[in-house]
Amino acid sequence: MNRRIAVLPGDGVGAEVVAGPVELLEAIADAGRIELTGPWAVGASAFGALGTGLPADTLAACDDCDAMFFGAAGEHPGVSLDDYRPEHSIIGLRQRYDLRVSIRNIVRAGESGESGGRPLIVLRNLLGGAYGAASTRTESDGTDAAGDEVILTPEQIAELAEMACDLVEQGLASSIVSADKANLMATSRLWRSVTGQVAEARGVPLRHTYIDRMAFELAHDDVVSDTVVLTEGIFGDMLSDLAAGRAGSIALCGSASVNPGPPVQGRCVGLFEPVHGSAPRHTGKGKVNPSGAYLALAALLEWFPDTAELGPPVTAALSEALQAGPLTYDLAPAGTEPVGTASFAAAVNARALRSLKELL
């Protein structure tokens, strides 16, 4: 049975950034390697048209797919949200399918060399820890104290550490840096103990560091690209944005939210998306950088053993396009003319299809 992918463009610029990657998915589907469904309505745009951010037919399609390819969640031009928060759509999907692990890939514009254009990987928990359930939070009316309880189990940490080791053994990274706050937090001391034990048992190189030192190293560009940064959810959320900023643009980061175990609802085990928002002020202008969507596509393909070989050609094509230029407005050097979303996507696709053709 082929993998089935549901396309959810979402809000704002979501449809624009996924258009190029979807062309590659269509080529892969035409070759009989996957099935493709959609586009399906979701988020603020769905709320504006249908009164709900998660329509029933979208949920049914997602239940019946192996993975979701998602554009963006956020504000959408012309839609009055009232009390609706568009991020509830993506949070709802994560909870529905127990997408408890986040894998974010960040590339550097124009980077080549020993890393072969491989991305920096930030691996973190997406449910649990600082991303705990509502029951772990104490809200305040402005006069009482507020509280957020951070709880991590050895099993949750070990699962993440095992996944980090898998990435190294699969050749997608060369080593692991585990970032924590073990000089302050009990959860971080447990984190350091468990990650160290797992890496030692697997024979995979791992270095421990504090989260503040990790931030300095990323900002100072001391971390090589083909590294896994293994860290707690809220730490990883911040570090991945810092790494993308150091790389040159938030658009250089793709995200995978995955369930590493058996499906808990239907057959869906992953949601793959760029990390940037819906950018409503840029919607319809055809100028945004689609790199994050290409990274998300590569991660989607690599997640499943039967399509894993199709992911690296996408990442390589993106790296080549970023190195060769011309680039979108967020990365174009001063004095050069930027290209639009479609032109940059065409440059990536031309390279990717040459390589994919040999594998399809």
Protein model, in words:
It is built from eleven helices and twelve strands. The protein is globular and about 50 Å long. By secondary structure, the protein is α/β, with parallel strands linked by helices. It has a ten-stranded mixed sheet, sandwiched between helices. The chain has a two-stranded antiparallel sheet with strand order 6-7. The protein starts with a strand and ends with a helix. The longest helix is centred in the N-terminal third of the chain and has 17 residues, at 14-30. The chain has helices at residues 14-30, 43-50, 56-63, 87-96, 154-169, 186-202, 211-219, 233-247, 291-303, 311-324, 341-356; strands at residues 3-10, 34-37, 67-72, 101-106, 120-125, 137-138, 147-148, 175-180, 206-210, 227-231, 253-258, 270-274.
Report strand order across the widest sheet.
Answer: 2-1-3-12-11-4-5-10-8-9
Radius of gyration: 20 Å
Instruction: Please tally the β strands and state the result.
Output: 12
Tally of individual helices:
11
* Largest β-sheet summary: 10 strands, mixed
Give the SSE order as H and E letters: EHEHHEHEEEEHEHEHEHEEHHH
Q: What is the 3D form?
A: globular
Helix fraction, binned, reads 25-40%
Mean pLDDT: 93
